[in-house]
Structure formats: structure tokens, C-alpha cells
Amino acid sequence: MLEVLEVSGLVTFQDSGRHGFASFGVPTSGPMDWFAHHAANSLVGNSTNSTVIEIGLGEAVFRAKRNCVLVVTGAGYEVLNYVWTFPLWTSFFVRAGWIVHIKKISGGNWAYLACAGGFEVDSILDSHSTYLRGVLGDSIHAGDILQTGKPSNELLKLAAQNFPVKKYMVYSQSPVIEVIEGPQKDRFTEQGNQTFLNSEYTLSTSFDRMGYRLEGNPVTHSAGADLISEGMTMGSVQIPANGQPIVMMADAPTTGGYPKIANVVKASLPLLAQCETGVSKIKFKEITVEEAQIKYKKISEVFAKHPVGKISEVL
Amino acid sequence: MFKPLGDSAVLVQLGDKIDSAINQRVHALNALLQKNSIAGIVETVPAYCTLLIHYDPLILTFDQVKRWVRDEMTQLADSFHRTPRRLEIPIRYGGASGLDLETVAAAKNISIADVIRIHSEREYTVYMMGFTPGFPYLGTLDERLSMLRMESPRTLVKAGSVAIGGSQTGIYPLDSPGGWHLIGWTPLKLFDPTRESPFLFAPGDVINFIPFADDHA
After folding, report:
1. Do A183 and A148 form a contact (C-beta atoms < 8 A)?
2. CB < 8 Å from A in window 4-33 of B
3. CATH number at residue B56
4. Which residue does chain A place closest to B200, by CA atoms?
5. How many other β-carbons are positioned within 10 Å of the β-carbon of residue A48?
6. d(Cα B105, Cα B95) in Å, to the nearest integer?
7. B187 and A CB contact within 8 Å
């Protein structure tokens, strides 16, 4: 059980997403950085789909009401406990009464706080993910008491597990984001397609869980920017009339009406999610569907193959 | 006809315009695929002339999904008929939740009574859903009522508002911003996550508007 002492920015519960209602217009939601989300759960012995707290664009302070094991993953944050700093991607034991401060620093946007046993939140439409625009769940407020479930093992066995994150995901502020060509690639000039793949983009100040607006050389359409609305996914890169790419993120609407030049692959989504406004220099590289799926499988194996919560022992 | 949308979705293109016959085919294919779903298919999103199929790349490949859909489509041509669900939607035209009824009448140079008659005498298909949870895109609207979207969207449109945007009409399920012209209101709740059926509509449904007057509005 955790008590929320202070909170700022966008702090919500997220499991691995809400599936089965996209045809009714309900976004998938789930974590902005699925890799950090899954890793956080694995490190404290939870199933990868368990509910964690996503901390974005702000910070949070909690007090443990009981002894527990926590972990924080992601990028752009540090974890303070009075005068000590806990490393990210390493589970730690917290005694009842201790205060844990998840503090924003540079290098990313989103942190994931998992607790051994998972957070217990009401399920809405078969998911514990918060989708604020659709009023599915609520953000986390100061004063909230957060209930947690039963850990899968003794606390001392779950603490001090760490994750060799660099082996699987190299967070960077100058990432090469891999994409698959979009269904409307032919709605752009040859020059437009070249511009998209050969320029450097920055993240504008307009970004949230719904989408990231990028800034850079404009991508030119060959047949206008209006498309009959059709389904899209997290990672879809839409190009509106001004030629500046918008990458759809976790709370992306289920459908969209701008041509899609490309789609970011699952393996690259965490890297893009952690790009910072005004700092990051983003480049895109086209790969095939087969290549993308092999990469995704390789990363996912770390969560599927090993006993959950004992990652550091088996690697 | 089959294009990848990233590494975990396939876009099936059945046409390239907003057309009732093409959209019927989308819903028929969607119903067929739902009936005969296979492991690894996450969900499907029907739209005007496309069907997006989300799949789990740890279970299926792009080629496997393509092959599955192609096989199913051979049945679609001859044997598969879908009977759409029909719904009647009470609507109060004008008043506090139909602020743009007069504007629409003036812009189209017809009377308010004509707007109401033309809007309510036709049946509509839920071509697709999107924008916010439970929002139905209803078509096709009579040309005589077609209106460009507002230049500056309202920051708050009340849940239940019935509106016109382009050649479509729709109903706002939640209090939300909105750029369509508001002509009326329905007391029905389009979306309630605590209800056994959270959504009033499903893509492919056919609906009729039934006007009612409310003196207490």
C-alpha cells in the first residue's frame, strides 16, 4: 500500500493496454514505453501485463504504508529516498514509512513505478489503463491511497534484481527510429519520401500521450493531405497539410484522416517515446515487416523465456 | 489490397471513396472475420472503405494474416449476407442543444422545418466509429444539409448532441470539444462503461431518428 504525497504532470495507471474496443472508438492506451513497463513488472515478480504507475512530464512522491518492493524503470528520472539515490531498473526494498521521490531529470519523459504484487485498480472495459480524454479512469492525485496485491515471492527475494537494459534497448536523444513504409507512401512525392527518411527531426513542444508532433523539413504530398478516415495504430506517422510529421502514441485515436507515410516499429517505440523536446535529434530508417518482427521477438523473449522476477539470475 | 500498417496490423482496402456499397462490404467482411477469428488476431477496426486488422506479431506473421483474410474473402463474394441491427433514436431538434439549427437552415436557404424533415426522413448507417469512445459517423447525409465543419471548434459540446459535419451526421457520446454544427439532442446514453453493453451503437448498425418535442427544454 502506498500513499501519494505529491504529484505533478501526467501520472496514471497503465497495464499493457485496452484491447477489443477499438472498433467503438476506444484507444488502446497502455504504456508510452512498453519495454520499460514490462521490465518494471518482471523485476518485481509481476506478470508483464500488471498495472504500474506511469509518471510523465512531472514527478511524484510516495510513502510506503507497509514493507514493499518497488522498482522504477524508464528514462529521464531518478529515485530518491532521503539522501540515497536508487538506480533505475533495479528493484529495491522499502520499509513501511519510507518516502520515495521519483524526480525528473534529463534524458527522457516517462518513468514506470511497479510494486511487487501490482497495483489494484478497477477494471473498465477489460483494462486497468487510464484514458483521461475518454474518462476511463482518473489520474493519480496527492492524498490517494494505492492498494497493492500479493507479491509472487518473499520480498527479500524480489529486491535487488536488476535488468541489463542496454542489451535490449539503447535509449538515446539522437535515435535512429525504424519504420515500415506506410500505406499511403504513394501519396507523397519522391522528394517528400526522401525528405522524411534523410532529414533530422526534433520533438515540438506539442506532445502528450496521444501524439508527438515533430518539426523539421516539411514532407510534400503529391495528392493532398485529406484521406478518407481509416484505422491507425500507435506508431502511425501522419503527415498533415503543413508537412510536419505527427507520430501517434499510446492514446492515439483509433482512426485518422491524414496520409500515413510510415509506421514506427514496436522495437523503436520506446526510443521515440523517451525523446525530449528541444534536445532530441530524430532520424528515421526504413526496414521490412519481417525484420521488424524478428527484432520485436528478440526483445520480447527476455520477458517470455525467463522466470519472471529472476531476470538478473538467468542472464 | 493488403498493406502492412507497422509490424502488428494489416490494412485491407476495399475501395477508395465514401460509398454505401463499399462500406457494406467492409462490415460484411468484418462480421465474417469476427465469426471465424484465429489465435493471434487482437481486434479489427472497420472504417469507410477499409478494415484494419490488429494482430500479435509474436503469434502471426503479416503473410499469415493476409492468407487468412484472403481465404475468408472467397466466402464473402457469394454466400455471406449480414443483417444489420436497426435502432430508433429519439431526437429533439433545436433548443439549447441544437444551437446551429437556424444557422444550417439559413446557410442552406431552407426552412427549419425542412432541415428537420430532411434530416429525420432518411435512414443512416454507422459507417465507422471513432473520435471519442462511442461516436458514430452516420451517412450518408442528404446533400441539401451538407455543411463544412466550423472554422473554430467549440471547446465544449454536450453529450447527446446531434450534429452535422460535411456529408455526415453524428452524435457526441461524451462532453467534448467539437467542430460540427449542432442541430439537436438525444436523451439516450451512447456510452456508459458500467453498462453491460457499454456502447449503444456498433459499426454497421442502421438507425432512424424519431423527432420529439420537449417543452421543458
Report:
1. no
2. 4-9, 11, 13, 16-18, 30
3. 3.30.1360.40
4. A24
5. 17
6. 14
7. no
Please check whether residue B216 lies inside any domain of the structure.
Answer: no
Give the ranges where A134-243 is alpha helix by DSSP (H). Answer: 155-158, 190-198
Closest by CA position to B31, among listed B81, B67, B87:
B81
For the structural domain made of A176-300, what CATH number should be given? Answer: 2.40.100.10
Domain boundaries, chain A: 2-163, 176-300
With the CA atoms of B11, B12, B16 and B17 taken in that order, what torsion angle do they form, in degrees rounded to the nearest 10?
Answer: -100
Q: Which CATH number characterizes residue B207's domain?
A: 2.40.100.10
The verdict on residue B12 lying in a domain is: yes
For each of chain A's 315 residues, which pLDDT tens digit applies? 999 999 999 999 999 999 999 999 999 999 999 999 999 999 999 999 999 999 998 999 999 999 999 999 999 999 998 888 999 999 999 999 999 999 999 999 999 999 999 999 999 999 999 999 888 999 999 999 999 999 999 999 999 999 989 999 999 999 999 999 999 999 999 999 999 999 999 999 989 999 999 999 999 999 888 899 999 999 999 999 999 999 999 999 999 989 999 999 999 999 999 999 999 999 999 999 999 999 999 999 988 765 555 555 544
In contact, A142 and A7? CB cutoff 8 Å = yes
Which stretch of DSSP H or E encloses residue A78?
A: strand A77-81
Q: Is residue B14 part of a domain?
A: yes
Cβ neighbourhood burial of B68 (10 Å; 0-12, 13-18, 19+): buried
Contacting residues of B for A263, CB less than 8 Å apart: 4-7, 9
Residue B106 lies in a domain: yes
* Contact between chains at A230 and B43 (C-beta distance less than 8 A): no
Rg of chain B in Å (alpha carbons): 19
Q: Are residue B113 and residue B33 in the same domain, yes or no?
A: no
